[in-house]
Amino acid sequence: MNKRIIVGAVIIGRNEGQRLINCIESLKSDIQHIIYVDSGSSDNSLQEALDRNVNCVSLDLNTPFTAARARNAGAQYLVDKCPEIEFIQFIDGDCVVQAGWVDMAYQYLLDNVDYAVACGRRRERFPEHSIYNQLCDIEWNTPIGEAKSCGGDALIRVSAFTQVGGYNSVLIAGEEPEMCFRLREKGWKIVRLDSEMTLHDAAMTRVSQWWNRAKRAGFAYAHGYFLHGQSTEKYNYKATKSILLWGGVFPLTIILLALLLTPFFLLLFCFYPLQIFRLSIKNISHNMSIINGVSYAVSNVCGKFPQFMGVMRFAKNHLLGRKSSLIEYK
Length: 330
Prior knowledge:
By secondary structure, this protein is an alpha/beta fold. The model has no long low-confidence stretch (mean pLDDT about 95). Strands 1, 2, 3, 4, 5, 6, 7, 8 and 9 form a 9-stranded mixed sheet that branches. The protein folds into 2 domains: about 5-205, Spore Coat Polysaccharide Biosynthesis Protein SpsA, Chain A, CATH 3.90.550; about 225-320, no CATH class. The protein has helices spanning about 5, 20-30, 45-50, 65-80, 100-110, 130-140, 160-165, 175-185, 205-230, 235-260, 270-285, 290-300, 305-320; strands at about 5-15, 35-40, 55-60, 85-90, 95, 115-125, 145, 155, 190-200. The protein contains 13 helices and 9 strands. The longest helix is centred in the C-terminal third of the chain and has 24 residues, at about 235-260.
């Protein structure tokens, strides 16, 4: 089979500037059919893509933007234009594809027909620029082998993607693991290959960005649990329960006991640094450096508070019948 004929690419982005140019250039040598889906950019992203002979789709401004909606629109355009396409490399516009990745992932899916998705190692381009970038880089380092989910960058089999109806365009985040859940329910498998896949530019330099990203994660966990929490797998149950406990129930209970009974109950907040210490030891035992192990533990524990806010935001929207809006961090 001719890889350049049956493998296409869908890039999504908004106001990515030079990052989009880098993304397109990283794909051109491997993939002939590239679609860029723009979510209301105010810069020259669309023109830069057109100048590089990339087909473009501009999302309707009257419908709320989501990454899921953008990916679905790109996939639909690509399959309609090139019905011979059998695999799609999805990639965010702030990423570049590493040399050799498409060949490896394509060959794996070609040889393993029961796998729907292949992903690899996503790395941060500038982890040294901020602790928040470094935390993202740690997060991207998922276990190698059969996996439950992938991230935004992945090579996906079109027949599997079509079977489950693609991404859930209503989700403002967490659309990749949610689709992977539905794929696994249909008997498909996901793999994380031991290969460099993409370089990502989180561009996070402020605590407010980290806070909003964590809030968005909490929203996504809650929405995913609402959709599939009653499944045999109890999708997102454990994560949502942890957020509710550590980010809401436990601290609010301590404060209430301190106000009604005695301030000594505030000493129970010591469980948080103890939890950080426990997770730090665990991280370091998994070959993280001391700095990274402690930083990641602090982020995981303290992140429960903005995540709790995200869960509450989802609950409020659902009870009031409101449509979800994006929670952006950059």
